[in-house]
Design brief:
There is one protein chain. The chain is an alpha/beta fold. It has one domain: Rossmann fold (3-Layer(aba) Sandwich). The chain contains eight helices and ten strands. The strands form two sheets. A six-stranded mixed β-sheet has the order 6-7-8-3-9-10, with helices on both faces. Helix 3 runs parallel beside helix 5. The longest helix is centred in the C-terminal third of the chain and has 18 residues. The model has no long low-confidence stretch (mean pLDDT 94). The chain binds adenosine-5'-diphosphate.
């Protein structure tokens, strides 16, 4: 029996994802087992084509897997209708993208409130303002994305991802479009949501410095988990692992 205390935020059990059929089939994920516990920050790394995006999409219930099981906050996604899956995603999963993906016509506050509206919820008074304050943008509520810097836009996107208090936030190269300083701010922010609110974060990144903010680094190669480093893993050690994997992928 799974009790509430030992329930993973997300779990992949023997997940395989194949694209195409017959001799052209590509196995993007090959019987991957991975568990992301509540209140942890995991970086997912690996050479290009190793399956990072597929892992993220599968774990988020954006993509149906070929075999195996994905559980989000204890719910197996395979058994859900499209409608129920959409509902689960909207309430339990947050996303942060490399290109921010804010809606240009909406203000920061309107962008943040959007997931609540999609989930059919009305924000409590002060809820959106509190969310923006949490990401350090209390004074930018009425600004549109074009009136904000890249780092500020990404912080709005993080507020939007957190507003439903999801079981897990998936971040896909969240610092990829930012300069080093704004990138570091975004990483500190993600780190503090984990430390202060027990948020679970799973982040795909190429950058060892970004990955060093996580408390665990999963390395993929050819659709398999080949390394799983936990604890305070320094950027240097991550960079050495990355270089080794890229060498053997060549
Ligand atoms: P990464 O994010 O690490 O670069 P991906 O998950 O994007 O890796 O891709 C893993 C493998 O699956 C690659 O060989 C890629 O070409 C293949 N792949 C990904 N998406 C598709 C798709 N929609 N159709 C066919 N092959 C795909």
């Amino acid at each position: 029996m799974t009790t509430r205390d030992d329930r993973a935020a997300v779990e992949l059990r023997a997940v395989t994802r194949r694209y195409g059929h017959g001799e052209n089939a590509i196995t993007a994920l090959d019987t991957v087992d991975a568990r992301f516990d509540p209140g942890t920050f995991t970086a997912v790394m690996g050479p290009s084509g190793s399956g990072k995006s597929t892992l993220l999409h599968s774990a988020a219930g954006l993509d149906r897997v070929t075999s195996g099981e994905v559980l989000i906050d204890g719910t197996a996604v395979a058994g859900l209708s499209e409608r129920a899956l959409t509902r689960l995603r909207r309430s339990r999963v947050g996303f942060v993208f490399q290109a921010f993906n804010l809606i240009p016509a909406l203000t920061a506050a309107q962008n943040v409130v959007l997931p609540l509206r999609l989930a059919g919820r009305r924000p409590a008074p002060g809820e959106v303002a509190a969310m923006l304050a949490e990401v350090g943008l209390a004074d930018r509520a009425g600004h549109r994305p074009a009136e904000l810097s890249g780092g500020q836009q990404q912080r709005v996107a993080i507020a939007r991802a957190l507003v439903t208090r999801p079981a897990v936030v998936f971040a896909d190269e969240p610092t990829g479009a930012l300069d080093a300083r704004s990138g570091a701010e975004v990483l500190r922010l993600l780190r503090s949501t984990v430390d202060r609110h027990g948020q679970t974060v799973v982040m795909v990144t190429h950058d060892p410095v970004a990955a060093a903010h996580a408390d665990r680094v999963l390395f993929l190669a050819d659709g398999r988990v080949v390394d799983d480093l936990t604890g305070a893993v320094g950027a240097e050690r991550i960079a050495v692992h990355t270089a080794r994997l890229e060498e053997s992928a060549r």
